[in-house]
Specification:
Elements (H helix, E strand, L loop, with lengths): L5 E2 L6 E7 L11 E9 L5 E5 L6 E4 L7 H7 L7 E6 L21 E11 L10 H20 L3 H13 L6 H20 L3 H13 L4 H17 L3 H14 L4 H37 L2 H16 L30 H11 L3
Antiparallel strand pairs: 1-2, 2-6, 3-4, 3-5, 3-7, 6-7
């Protein structure tokens, strides 16, 4: 290898020669590095440099702000290390060059670079490509599942929520990842007794219209939450739809059987309650019958005080006025009858 240079990549596109040894760990993707560097062309022209130790250049590995060769080289360096780099166009500015830095097309580059220090850190979301975001979502889902298995549902929920924020792919693969996270959020909400949220997340998974297996899980999760808040008709509809997807799924069959039994018992109880209410209503109406009878009896007593043979028309006969009430004299043409009434009423 010429002049102590070693290949950092198989095709020889990035070579490094150590000028000053460093120590400690080496940075990785996402690490925030503070560096000093100077870049020259083959003729010795300096096209770029940053050599102020008081205010070093800050560079995050993997953000593609600088050339690819920088990322490769820095991941091979230790803190304090100074090195010389030889970088071909494929890992530099390519066949276009850089007109702002006066780098011609297909230029080979030479750098002197020093790694002052670095901090571990992941790339910010806005710095990631769509594919990197997808991978980050998968990584977070794995972490969330680990927490879920430890029954740490609250923290698992938080991680799944963060993972969902990284899902930007609209491909089939991207939508399936979103649906997976929505389903995980649904079951976490269920475990945290947030049943309305559990239903909402399951609905969102269904809206993505992914594969049948995820649709089956979403319907099942939604049904379980409906059962918890006694929305049994909705639960039964979900389970029946799930059964249309997989008629042999034992979990769905078991839950559907339970819901049917609960609905049957509920209807029987309602029927019993209505029957009791109806009977009570009849009983309450009979309570007033003694009063009606009492009134009728009172009327009967009143009538018994009157002469049944009395002619009611007598009440309409003219009554004597104050002028002649004292002038009336007993009739004397019926003395025989008067005598007979006196004899009949006399004691024997």
């Amino acid at each position: 290898m010429e002049g102590g240079f070693v290949n950092l990549i198989e095709d020889g596109g990035v070579k490094k020669r150590i000028l000053q040894e460093g120590q400690g760990e080496m940075p990785i993707d996402g690490s925030r590095c503070k560096i000093l560097f100077k870049g020259t062309l083959d003729d010795g022209t300096i096209f770029d440099q940053y050599l102020d130790k008081e205010r070093p250049y800050k560079f995050r590995i993997g953000n593609e702000i600088l050339i690819k060769g920088f990322d490769i080289a820095l991941k091979s360096m230790k803190v304090g290390e100074k090195a010389e780099l030889k970088i071909t166009p494929n890992y530099g500015y390519g066949n276009e060059g850089d007109q702002y830095k006066n780098v011609p097309q297909n230029a080979n580059l030479t750098y002197e670079i020093q790694l002052l220090n670095f901090k571990e850190g992941k790339m910010q979301k806005w710095e990631m490509t769509t594919e990197e975001k997808q991978q980050e979502a998968i990584n977070k889902r794995t972490k969330g599942t680990s927490l879920f298995k430890q029954q740490n549902y609250k923290e698992a929920y938080k991680i799944y929520k963060k993972a969902l924020s990284y899902c930007t792919l609209t491909t089939t693969e991207g939508n399936e990842l979103k649906a997976s996270l929505q389903l995980n959020l649904s079951i976490c909400s269920y475990q945290l007794e947030q049943y309305k949220d559990s239903i909402d997340y399951a609905k969102k998974a269904l809206d993505l219209k992914t594969n049948q297996q995820q649709k089956l899980k979403a319907l099942y999760r939604k049904a379980l939450a409906h059962i918890k808040i006694t929305e049994l008709d909705e639960a039964q509809a979900d389970l029946r739809e799930a059964l249309n997807i997989d008629s042999t799924n034992s979990a769905v069959i078991e839950e559907l059987s339970k819901v049917k039994q609960i609905l049957k018992e509920t209807k029987m109880k309602e029927k019993e309650i209505y029957s009791k209410l109806f009977q009570q209503q009849l009983y309450d109406e009979s309570e007033i019958e003694p009063k009606e009878i009492e009134i009728k009896e009172a009327k009967s007593e009143c009538s018994s005080l009157c002469d049944p043979n009395e002619n009611i028309e007598e009440e309409t006969q003219a009554k004597p006025t104050d002028e002649n009430i004292y002038d009336q004299k007993p009739k004397t043409d019926n003395n025989e009858n008067n005598r007979k009434i006196s004899e009949e009423s006399a004691p024997v």
